[in-house]
Amino acid sequence: MKLLEVRDLRASVEGKEILKGLDLSIGEGEVHAIMGPNGSGKSTLSEVLAGNPAFTVTGGTVEFHGIDLLSLTPEDRSHEGLFLSFQYPVEIPGVSMTNFMRAAINAKRKYFGEPPMAATEFLKMMRERRGIVELDNKLASRSVNEGFSGGEKKRNEIFQMAMLEPRLSILDETDSGLDIDALRVVAEGVNKLKKPTNATVVITHYQRLLDYIKPDFVHVLYKGRIVRTGGPELALELEERGYDWIKEEADR
């Protein structure tokens, strides 16, 4: 079953068009990697799908498990199962991770007409999901990302993903700034959360993340469009040859 269908998507920021007719199809159970040179529109795509109001959609359609995604608020997109892991996670001083996650889960439950989760059930869930990314209990009880290292912030993002159980997870350069150990833990967390009914989009510059998170499809984004799609071997070819050959082909 197709989970996400993006057709001829066009979007701009401050009057400048970034996405210029992008097409992307993602099925349940699939892992897609999106690669491309700087400025090609990778992060713009993730922000547009998440509903960042700084970006203006000027054309195209996005269908998410049968729903018109573009008609939903950012909050409702999240409730419907879209998750975005930020490249630079923000700190929220004064808000504990426990309270933050409980509010998020109960907001989602309310959206679907369900009662709030009982405190004992929630705390049990937190303990189980923390173990997926080896997140220290002390970090989980502190304010959201406050004083966290880069690796701890990224682990925290995957912990949130584990708690919210999204249908589609978009990881925007989640490997940025991670050492090998942190990269392994984060990637293993992502792999443990993979199900036949969900999907993951990995936005990255580097092959090294794809050594841990195995993609079914690799897409190259250039000048606001996906110009080439292949299997995992395409990422290896990009690692070896760079993007110049892709640019030359696309510009012909």
Radius of gyration: 18 Å
- Which spans of ≥5 residues are poorly predicted at pLDDT below 50? none
**Overall 3D form:** globular
- Percentage of β-strand residues: 25-35%
Q: Main beta sheet: strand number and arrangement?
A: 6 strands, mixed
What is the helix/strand order? EEEHEEHEEHHHEHEHEHEEHH
For the secondary structure, the number of strands is: 12
In helices, the fraction of residues equals 25-40%
Distance between the termini: 35 Å
Structural class: alpha/beta
Integer average pLDDT: 89
Q: Give the count of helical stretches.
A: 10
Tell me the strand order in the biggest sheet. 6-9-10-3-11-12
Can you put this structure into words, describing what you see?
This protein has 10 helices and 12 strands. The protein has a 6-stranded mixed β-sheet with strand order 6-9-10-3-11-12, sandwiched between helices. Strands 2-1-4-5 form a 4-stranded antiparallel β-sheet, with helices on one face. A two-stranded antiparallel ribbon has the order 7-8. Helix 6 runs parallel beside helix 7. It is globular and about 60 Å long. The two termini are 35 Å apart.
Concise account of the structure shown:
The chain is an alpha/beta fold and 252 residues long. The protein has helices at residues 42-50, 74-79, 97-111, 119-132, 137-140, 150-164, 180-192, 207-210, 232-241, 244-251; strands spanning 2-13, 16-27, 31-35, 56-64, 67-68, 82-85, 92-96, 143-144, 168-172, 199-203, 217-222, 225-230. The strands form 3 sheets. It has a 6-stranded mixed beta sheet with strand order 6-9-10-3-11-12, sandwiched between helices. It has a 4-stranded antiparallel beta sheet with strand order 2-1-4-5, covered by helices on one side. A two-stranded antiparallel ribbon has the order 7-8.
